[in-house]
Hints:
The complex is a heterodimer of chains A (234) and B (126). Chain A has helices at residues 6-9, 13-19, 104-113, 115-141, 144-159, 168-175, 179-191, 207-213, 217-229, and strands spanning 23-28, 33-35, 43-47, 51-57, 63-69, 90-95, 97-103, 163-164, 195-198, 201-204. Chain A has 234 residues and is of the alpha+beta class. Chain A has two domains: 6-105, Jelly Rolls, CATH 2.60.120; 138-224, Arc Repressor Mutant, subunit A. In chain A, the strands form three sheets. A four-stranded antiparallel beta sheet of chain A has the order 2-6-4-5. A three-stranded antiparallel beta sheet of chain A has the order 1-7-3. A three-stranded antiparallel beta sheet of chain A has the order 8-10-9. Chain A is globular and about 55 Å long. Chain A starts with 5 loop residues before the first helix and ends in a 5-residue tail after the last helix. Chain B is an alpha/beta fold and 126 residues long. Chain B is 36% helix and 22% strand. Chain B has four helices and six strands, in the order βαβαβαβββα. Chain B has helices at residues 15-25, 36-43, 62-75, 114-125; strands spanning 5-9, 29-33, 52-56, 84-87, 98-101, 106-110. In chain B, strands 2-1-3-4-6-5 form a six-stranded mixed beta sheet, with helices on both faces. Classes of the chains: A alpha+beta (234), B alpha/beta (126). At the A-B interface, helix 7 of A face helix 1 and helix 4 of B. Chain A: Keywords: DNA-binding, Transcription, Transcription regulation. Chain A: This is Crp/Fnr family transcriptional regulator. Chain A: Residues 142-208 form the HTH crp-type domain. Chain A: InterPro entries: cNMP-bd_dom_sf, Env_Response_Regulators, HTH_CRP, RmlC-like_jellyroll, WH-like_DNA-bd_sf, WH_DNA-bd_sf.
Amino acid sequence: MAHRNRLLSVMSPQLYQKLKPHLTEIYLEQGTILHRPTNIIEYLYFPIDCLLSITITTESGNTAETGLVGNRDLLGINAFMGSAETTQTEYIVQISGQAIRADAPPLLAEFDTNKEMRDIVLRYTQALIAQISQTTACNRLHVLEQRLARWLLESSERIEKDELYLTQGFIADMLGVRRAGVTQSAQALQRQGLIQYRNGYVKIVDRSGLESAACECFRVVIDEYDRLLGVHDY
Amino acid sequence: MQKPEILLVEMDDETRPLLRQNLMIAGFEVIISLDEADAIARMQNQTKYPDLILLNQVGDSIENFLKMGLRLRSQLAFPAQTPIVVIADRFEEALSGQNQQVGANEYVTYPADAQQLMDLLHQLCD
């Protein structure tokens, strides 16, 4: 049976067996910080049904999400750039759930010596760059209602659930906007029959309608992941 | 029946059009202003008073937004009973869903959703 994390599922059985002694399935609680800026990255995370965020907090204390990590991703890609690598970003658990935690040093050693491992990691790096690039343009060019619709779809797709247990304050932080902007956008999406929401909970009730309300960025990023990592078939 | 009229001070460019649209759909007339000075300028040629002053907190304390509302009501010579509502932006989740009366006609709302705000505004304008 294919693994529920896409990157683990595209590995050959031989590679997966080599890595397996270094992999541990764990449960991650919402709000847990997995990495703080400047700390050396000790673990990588392959999410199964949790949602993780890569965020940046500015000197003024404002936070914004720079990357979204779910079951088609790997958190901690910077660890492959060297044995003592860090990043200015923070990693936080956005939605609780299961993940595979991996020790960084043995995976880096495999990356240095195994072409299959290197190919998978580099293709994923390209997919992550595609996501971050698209988000950069999206934040500059698309209105908040479109961005919220896209973000809900991206989050839902990565945990394969229509219900998201997230506060509006948390969503506002992730989108780098004010809470009122999220509240009013959510109201507009609810009025169109696309979502239901109350504080701490959002349910997607019309996925195709929500895709129409979102900007094209959701579909562009999905297509790029599929091109680089294979179509999601589990 | 005449719709209640709200003087809105909304400094955030992204939220302003969304809030305006939602207020209008909820049955309010809206006079939009970008800040305190703009609110004064927009109201100077108005022949009637708004039914309520609504301020959305951006980058300053709730107390200072309440003071801004009091200054507007006073400088524009609105009736003293004109309600002032501040929408809180940053707050503990425990406050979510609450509307707090902080003066005779002054309120702070901590919205759990947009409907809570609309319900409060209708209640204060009726």
